[in-house]
Amino acid sequence: MHPLPPASPFGADDGSVDPALAAALAAHPDPSSAADRAGVLAALLGARLLVPLVGVSGAEPGQPRGAQLASVTVTGRDGRPALPVFTGLGPLARFDAGARPVPMPAPTVARAALAGDVAALLVDPGGPSPAVVTGAALVLLAQGRAWVRPAEDPDVAAAVAEAAATAGVAVTVSPGPEGGADLLATVSALAGGRWDHARAAAGAAALAAALARDPYLSARCEGGVDVAVAPPTVAR
């Protein structure tokens, strides 16, 4: 196993797995569970991860193989690229004993992954407690934020408000139904002081198109956003 780079800000780090991080990953093994995704995210927010670098062929003629280093990506089951990362030198050695470990804070790794169009982090893919960080959890990790429901996320509210302004409608946002979409955006419209269902329906279609174009909402609201039309409530 390689020692950690001496110039690293983690110079005192011997590459051991943090016992608290290992315990948290073992306690939250189900990536399909919202509670387990939240638990993994909470554990990673303050964690150090090791990103493996491997030698690649030189880009210039005559340059020796291995003169350049690059991070490793693998293809996930959905066909999108994923970045394997490790909690310590032991799990990394089981994956590739020749890889050079680069220690980085987990949020920094997540930001780099998103910038590189990587869809997921694979934490300790060879075990003992593998975890997958993708979708909303990856976005929040990159922001250094704990798990919150989309309906409680101010950035989601701002994105919906911007989409509503683009569509020229006013909306109210509420949590989606259990087992359904993450959010429900309800559109109401007035024409001449009266309820105009056709105008509201057209506004709802424009809103749905604007929401679908927003990359943050697509990543943050994994269950989608439903758009509904309802008459406005008139105070008496």
Can you give a write-up of this model?
The longest helix is centred in the last third of the chain and has 16 residues, at about 195-210. The protein has helices at about 20-25, 35-45, 90-95, 105-115, 135-145, 155-165, 195-210, 215-220; strands at about 50-55, 70, 75, 80-85, 100-105, 120-125, 130-135, 170-175, 185-190, 190, 195, 225-230. Helix 1 (about 20-25) packs antiparallel against helix 2, helix 2 (about 35-45) packs parallel to helix 5 (about 135-145) and helix 4 (about 105-115) crosses helix 5. It is of the alpha+beta class and about 240 residues long. The strands form four sheets. It has a four-stranded mixed beta sheet. The termini are far apart. The protein is elongated, with a radius of gyration of 23 Å. A hairpin with a 7-residue loop joins strand 6 and strand 7. The protein has two domains: about 20-145, Trna Endonuclease, Chain: A, domain 1, CATH 3.40.1350.90; about 150-230. The protein is about 35% helix and about 25% strand. Residues about 1-5 have low confidence and may be disordered. The chain contains eight helices and twelve strands.
